[in-house]
Design a protein that fits this description.
There is one protein chain. This protein has two domains: 21-143, 60s Ribosomal Protein L30, Chain: A; 160-302, Alpha-Beta Complex (Phosphoribosyl-aminoimidazole Synthetase, Chain A, domain 2). Helices cover 29% and strands 26% of the residues. It has helices at 7-17, 64-81, 101-117, 182-191, 204-215, 230-239, 243-249, 262-270, and strands spanning 34-39, 42-52, 85-96, 122-130, 135-143, 160-164, 194-199, 218-222, 256-260, 279-286, 291-294, 300-302.
């Protein structure tokens, strides 16, 4: 019988078959970025992402400049998740044969809109054309810049769990216009000891599961503490789902989820160092495994990963 198919099954399979020298690659597959030593004190962080027409954007609703912006911003959000500082970016595009020069120029302008906002020049890449929908990929090189990279795997029992911003309903437009939380991540990491962090690309339920699994802890979320966006409330009126369900599972919020110790967590509650960006404690890490959500009445139930799955399991009977 074939092994079950899924994103994390594939990642674990890849991990089991590569053997990295930790002196050269201190952080390998499975985190938001890889960390590579270049000799001496020099280190760089690397990430790469791909966006597919029909999956990550709809050109009937999004302008090509917005698509270019999102492509670069997605990789910059990975930089935020590690509390790193971007250095430069690369981009590659598979242009549908029917798209003209003006379309390609707008894509490029969007890439540079995001890159320029974070002093991360696009220094190269590749362009090709094909008889398929638009595909656009980005890679970013970053550096620690005085802050030790924050991994997904450092959460500890007793840690308080926080998120930035508000969640849910990003499909109404925010997924094309979000601001990567690079400045906020570095401010947090400079203010308190951030044990673990991840950007919320796949949905809170899924990404919290990633953090809990990689850290070897359980996680508990208080339902009424989850910051639900007004967009999630609007979307719920047309989907038959609750605003909370959208906040937990929609994905592409590109906010930060972080774990800090109780003392540091209480200091963040008392004095949010992020100014206008909301910072909310949504729960705690504990002993054990899995993710639990606690309803307003105190009822506890498992919170399964309901966000985006990059590599969907096969349907019954498929291999």
């Amino acid at each position: 019988m074939a092994a079950p198919k899924g994103e994390w099954q594939l990642i674990e399979w890849i991990r089991s078959r590569i053997h990295l020298d930790p002196a050269t690659v201190p952080i390998g597959p499975g985190d938001d970025m890889a960390l590579v030593s270049l000799g001496g004190e020099s280190q760089c962080l690397l990430t790469i992402d791909a966006l597919l027409e029909g999956t990550h954007f709809d050109l009937a609703k999004a302008k090509p400049r917005q698509v270019g912006y999102k492509a670069m911003a997605v990789s910059l959000s990975d930089v935020a998740a590690m509390a790193a500082k971007p250095v430069c970016g690369l981009a590659w595009v598979g242009l549908p044969d029917g798209r003209d020069m003006a379309f390609a120029e707008q894509l490029s302008l969007g890439l540079n809109d995001a890159a320029d906002a974070f002093s991360c020049p696009v220094v190269g890449g590749d362009v090709t054309s094909w008889q398929q929908p638009l595909t656009i990929g980005t890679a970013v090189v970053a550096r620690p810049a005085g802050i030790r990279p924050v991994r997904r795997s450092g959460a500890r029992p007793g840690d308080m769990l926080f998120v930035t911003g508000q969640l849910g309903g990003s499909s109404l437009g925010r997924h094309l216009t979000f601001t990567p939380r690079i400045a906020e991540a570095r401010r947090l990491a400079a203010t308190v000891a951030v044990h673990a962090m991840i950007d919320l690309s796949d949905g809170l339920s899924t990404d919290l599961g990633h953090m809990a699994r990689e850290s070897g802890v359980a996680a508990e979320v208080t339902a009424e503490a989850v910051p639900v966006s007004s967009a999630a409330a609007r979307l719920a009126k047309t989907t038959g789902r609750t605003p909370l369900d959208h906040a937990l599972n929609d994905g592409e919020d590109f906010e930060l989820l972080l774990a800090v110790g109780p003392e540091d967590g209480e200091s963040l509650v008392r004095a949010n160092p992020l100014g206008d960006v909301r910072l909310t404690c949504i729960g705690r890490a504990g002993e054990g495994r899995g993710v639990t959500i606690v309803a307003e009445g105190g009822e506890r139930r498992p919170l399964p990963p309901g966000g985006f799955e990059h590599f969907k399991p096969a349907a019954p009977g498929e291999t």
